[in-house]
Write a structure and sequence with these properties.
Layout: H1 2-22, E1 49-54, H2 62-78, E2 83-88, H3 99-104, E3 110-113, H4 138-148, H5 154-159, E4 164-171, E5 176-179, E6 194-197, H6 200-208, E7 212-215, H7 221-226, E8 232-235, H8 237-242, E9 251-254, E10 262-268, H9 269-274, H10 277-309, E11 314-317, H11 320-342, H12 348-359
Parallel strand pairs: 1-2, 1-3, 6-7, 6-8, 9-11
Antiparallel strand pairs: 3-10, 4-10, 5-8, 5-9
Length: 361
């Protein structure tokens, strides 16, 4: 009997020891979007994290190669492989116009976004970069916009209320004017012209200059210019070149700064809150770095394309006095637009002041 009891005692001890050891094993994989939203915030947490990232462009596209892929690689490097990405380029997870919903709903953890596509829910991000006469380059605008969207009121109103958080803020090169019909060098030259518009804000700006806005999607611009539906296009060379418009355009005016476009990356807010602090800091650092390096590459690409186009088309670089004439009209429009929006309770004036302060730094 004593021998049986002794053996039973040791058997129980061994089983308890095995149970204790097996209970302390950590998982080494799994998407953070599967969690409850309350993850381990400790810097010591090294559990493997796999995140889905969706974008509209092919991996070899310019923005993908200068911003998207470097962002993923930098996060993986900063976390020493703790974070890995499932990359879904070329709209594999859905249309780019739906990325805000797809991210907030958890279909993807991170996604590219263009705020003007959802301007009803992102009113400040969707318009602030479009204000004309503010930026001198993509890098100038991107560094300011990236910082702007990390603070209120734009952070709360445009992002957190929609269940997402911004990781990368990016602004295109300032828009120049391109045409198949003739140069526009002074504000009055736009009177009576059919000018391509990308949305309500741009239409209001065109009308302020006496032009007629023609709302047309970028993929349809080639046909629009070829058929004479559009006289002038406010855009920058990298985008136009990617759609083959360089073979149609005969005239370009450089230095107008007729607004710009904004985009970037957002992350599901619940996923963000579930991430360890070291991963959050790695993403913030990577986002700031690629907004800077990617926009610098964009500026270089823009100059390269314009230099090539100058060989076969007339590109007019505005003088300082000519730029000032445009700037006076831009300031007039910006002030009137802010006053109009203020009447409806908009905080766009506050956001614009923040943006201009960041641009001046």
């Amino acid at each position: 009997m004593k021998k049986i009891l002794k053996n039973s005692f040791w058997f129980i001890c061994i089983m308890m020891l095995l149970a204790a050891c097996s209970g302390g094993t950590d998982s080494t994989s799994g998407s953070s979007s599967e969690g409850s939203g309350e993850g381990d915030k400790s810097n010591d947490s090294k559990e493997k994290i796999v995140l889905k990232l969706a974008t509209h462009e092919a991996p070899e596209a310019f923005f993908s190669s200068t911003v998207t892929v470097p962002f993923m690689e930098r996060v993986e490097e900063l976390t020493e492989g703790q974070v890995e990405f499932e990359f879904y380029p070329s709209q594999q997870l859905g249309n780019v116009s739906d990325y805000l919903d797809l991210t907030s709903q958890g279909v993807t953890d991170i996604a590219f976004f263009i705020p003007s596509y959802t301007s009803d829910r992102m009113p400040y991000s969707g318009s602030i970069a479009s204000f004309p006469g503010l930026i001198s380059s993509s890098n100038h605008g991107s560094k300011a916009f990236h910082e702007l969207i990390q603070q209120d009121p734009i952070l709360e109103e445009d992002y957190l209320k929609n269940g997402v958080r911004p990781l990368v803020g990016y602004v295109t090169n300032p828009y120049d004017l391109f045409s198949t019909k003739g140069l526009v060098t002074a504000p009055e030259d736009l009177k009576g012209q059919q000018v391509r518009s990308s949305g309500a804000f741009m239409s209001a700006l065109i009308e302020h200059f006496g032009g007629t806005p023609v709302t047309i999607a970028t993929p349809e611009l080639y046909e629009g210019m070829e058929k004479g539906i559009v006289d002038q296009v406010a855009q920058y060379s990298t985008t136009l070149d990617s759609f083959g418009l360089g073979e149609l355009i005969e005239y370009g005016t450089q230095g107008v700064s007729f607004g710009a476009g904004s985009c970037g990356f957002i992350i599901n807010e619940n996923v963000w809150q579930s991430l360890p602090e070291n991963v959050q800091q790695a993403m913030l650092q990577a986002g700031k770095e690629v907004a800077d390096s990617g926009s610098k590459a964009d500026d270089e690409q823009n100059e390269k394309i314009l230099a090539e186009w100058s060989k076969n088309m007339e590109i007019k670089a505005l003088t300082d006095s000519e730029k000032n004439a445009w700037k006076e009209m831009f300031d007039e429009f910006n002030s009137s637009y802010v006053e109009e929006q203020k009447a409806s309770g908009s905080k766009i004036g506050e956001v614009l002041a923040q943006y201009e302060e960041l641009l001046a730094q």
